[in-house]
Amino acid sequence: MSIVVVNSWGWLLDSGSLKDQSCVCACDGTKAEYFxxxxxxxYFNILKPHIQVKQDVLKNxxxxxxxxxxxxxxxxKKRKKRKRKKSxxxxxxxxxxxxxxxxxSVVLEGSRALVEAGHRCGYWTEVLPSVTSxxxxxxxxxxxxxxxxxxxxxxxxxxxxxxxxxLNRDDLDAPLxxxxxxxxxxxxxxxxxxxxxxxxxxPPRSHFLMSDITHIHPLxxxxxxxxxxxxxxxxxxxxxxxxxxxxxxxxxxxxQLPVPALASPGCVVVTWVTNRAQHLRFVxxxxxxxxxxxxxxxxxxxxxxxxxEFVFPLDSQHKKPYEVLVLGRYRAxxxxxxSAQDEIPRQRLLLSVPSILHSHKPSLSAVxxxxxxxxxxxxxxxxxxxxxxxxxxxxxxxxxxHSGYFSRRRVEDPHGTSETAGATPGFC
Length: 428
Description:
It is built from 9 helices and 17 strands. By secondary structure, the protein is an alpha/beta fold.
């Protein structure tokens, strides 16, 4: 179950369970074997805050009441390091601090309410488990390099729609052109396939295109219009440049994404934004207006440990324990909101234990379900994993589908047929 708690503040999510695959059918040509595949929990094994401070953060109210007879409180004691004065900050830092001061109380009170609710239902870990760490798969990190190499292949006619290529379940190792065609698994079961000499899990009814922004036309030419588009752009920042973990995109190129060509009337557009004030302002004031998207809400993803503490101090001047999501609607002339859709609230929190894997965001499927029409088409841009009934695009689009990220155990064919066994539930 992905949603642990929902209340007026937002949602407490179990991000690990969102990645689980119900059953995998691995075929060797003569027989099928079925497995329960679980995204390895050690990737969500954050036991302590990244920066230790003297604070009682988000404690179980019952425990704290027994200790001091008071209601649970979050003590925001300042770190010993001298806090910089506002006069010492540059323009961007001042704007970031002003934004933080506006939303700090919401993060504080909302997180406390969600953590307390998680305690009441027994979600939080009190006894920390010992976990044997395993190496992160190495080969899947070459995906972006493969996309660069694919640019040397003969060019396809961008004006001609490329047909969707379908997974052949009778020959799972059959070669696929991942760079010029949208690939789909049309079946109601996850299949494990060999792609570029590595093993990957393709969820039921998933579609994906692996390319960079220069080769996105197969997605546009396919003709599908989407009711939900989620973006996690590789924003430019100093940390990315120093680490060299992935290639970033300047704002001018992000602006060139063909979102209006992909959006249906009334499409909900959601963009993950770093805590850099410049990026948030760009999305609100330039990117969304350029696409014809009206800003309607800002949500916050709050990151906590497995015991419910902020991963960074809330008053940290560098790293914050939250990230921003900007939500909007594509306002085409014929856009009509379905009566089945709820109005998107202007402010909500998503609280979860983050993955230790870089840029591994929680899925938004379950929380966005009430705000999308029935039988919607959903698209994720700059994706690094796949979801059932979604289309995903990016130069590392199957990164976290590598079989090395999953543990497995053998199970019986639950339905006695390889076509319908173990469908992974999804709303889109």
